[in-house]
């Protein structure tokens, strides 16, 4: 990357706050990527992320332009509508216009909670449409961002009927910023060489596409550390232990193709049992500070740790 580019591309922020965001683990994930580059001897690589969520790691990697081609996937339909709207420049311009209107309306409103409930209803009505048209997907994407910025704790949760049901947050009077146009344009640029899909992981982990020396980053919903742990359900029906087992099976396949993987999850005995059946895989316990869900709280109560599991050695990472 040339110096001029470096001066302009200073940072890219995920457009949404997402449960399980990888901001606190970026340093460790970047160290692992450096090792991957060394060991695979590739500088510009193909990247796969089947549980994309807020995409913090991908956006960080996009900064130094080392991704040649990316395969990005998440099972959440509305999330992928949003990313598709950002990837297409015409849709993005529409999205920005809508966000600007929503932001102005919210900041001028004396009845923000009423407005919020109105938006939430509109959002759920749009979500219920079977095959939404492009303008409806853009409308839904704008509302997704608006709700994310104004709901309680910025979390995303749906009820059994598949409706977004998070209550209004605490932003009663202060001015709230919904978007940063420059940042959205950087996200658009980062998606230039990305293929975006909306499937379940077992279909997204596709071996006609995953090849030798590709990097696969896997950040599935975390195995809860306790039975009472909240936020264990990212998607309507949660993520079962059988799905974790299936993913563990896929790790062997990824490894056998000569691809490299980095997987993150909570530091529990079950995580180790499921994901460390192959003795070639390495585990690193790393410290993190999580604000929302504390899913990574160590079972022993001795601190907050999460696991990074790889099929290659990363010296000096965790223990
Ligand atoms: C821990 S979050 C990923 C967080 C992300 N790395 C970030 O920085 O924001 C897990 C993601 O997996 C997605 N997910 C849940 N079940 C899935 C499935 N069966 N297939 C693909 N994605 C799934 C959720 O929608 C959620 O976005």
Q: What's the topology here?
A:
Elements: H1 3-8, H2 26-40, E1 45-49, H3 56-63, E2 67-73, H4 77-87, H5 89-108, H6 112-127, H7 134-150, H8 181-190, E3 194-197, H9 201-204, E4 215-218, H10 241-256, E5 260-266, H11 269-275, E6 282-287, E7 305-310
Parallel strand pairs: 1-2, 1-4, 2-3, 4-5
Antiparallel strand pairs: 5-7, 6-7
The structure holds S-adenosylmethionine.
S-adenosylmethionine binds at residues 18, 20-22, 50-51, 53-56, 74-76, 200-201, 219-221, 234-235, 239.
Q: What are the distinct ligands in this entry?
A: S-adenosylmethionine
Calculate the mean pLDDT score and round it: 89
Count of discrete alpha- or pi-helical segments spanning 4 or more residues: 11
Number of domains: 2
Radius of gyration: 20 Å
Number of strands: 7
Shape: globular
Fraction of helical residues = 40-55%
Low-confidence stretches: 1-8, 230-236, 292-302
Task: State the oligomer.
Answer: single chain
Which range does the strand content fall in? 5-15%
């Amino acid at each position: 990357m040339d110096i001029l580019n470096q001066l302009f591309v200073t940072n890219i922020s995920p457009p949404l706050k997402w449960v399980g965001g990888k901001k606190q683990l970026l340093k460790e994930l970047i160290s692992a990527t450096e090792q991957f580059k060394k060991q695979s001897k590739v500088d510009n690589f193909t990247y796969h992320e089947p549980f994309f969520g807020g995409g913090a790691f991908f956006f960080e990697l996009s900064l130094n332009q080392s991704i040649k081609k990316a395969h990005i996937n998440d099972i959440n339909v509305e999330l992928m509508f949003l990313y598709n709207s950002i990837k297409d420049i015409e849709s993005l311009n529409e999205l920005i216009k809508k966000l600007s209107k929503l932001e102005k309306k919210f900041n001028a409103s004396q009845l923000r909670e009423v407005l919020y409930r109105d938006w939430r209803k509109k959002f759920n009505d749009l979500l219920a449409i079977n095959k939404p048209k492009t303008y409806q997907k853009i409308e839904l994407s704008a509302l997704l961002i608006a709700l994310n910025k104004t709901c309680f704790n910025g979390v995303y949760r749906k009820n059994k009927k598949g409706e977004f049901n998070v209550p209004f947050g605490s932003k009663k009077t202060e001015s709230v910023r919904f978007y940063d146009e420059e940042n959205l344009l950087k996200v658009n640029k980062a998606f230039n060489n990305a293929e975006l899909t909306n499937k379940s992981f077992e279909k997204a982990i596709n071996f006609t596409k995953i090849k030798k020396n590709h990097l696969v980053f896997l950040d599935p919903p975390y195995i809860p550390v306790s039975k009472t742990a909240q936020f264990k359900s990212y998607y309507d029906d949660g993520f079962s232990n059988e799905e974790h087992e299936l993913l563990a099976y896929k790790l062997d396949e990824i490894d056998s193709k000569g691809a490299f993987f980095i997987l993150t999850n909570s530091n529990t005995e079950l995580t180790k049992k499921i994901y460390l059946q192959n003795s070639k895989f390495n585990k690193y316990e790393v410290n993190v500070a999580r604000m929302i869900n504390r899913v990574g709280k160590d079972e022993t109560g001795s601190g907050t740790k999460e696991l990074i599991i790889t099929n290659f050695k990363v010296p000096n990472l965790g223990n």
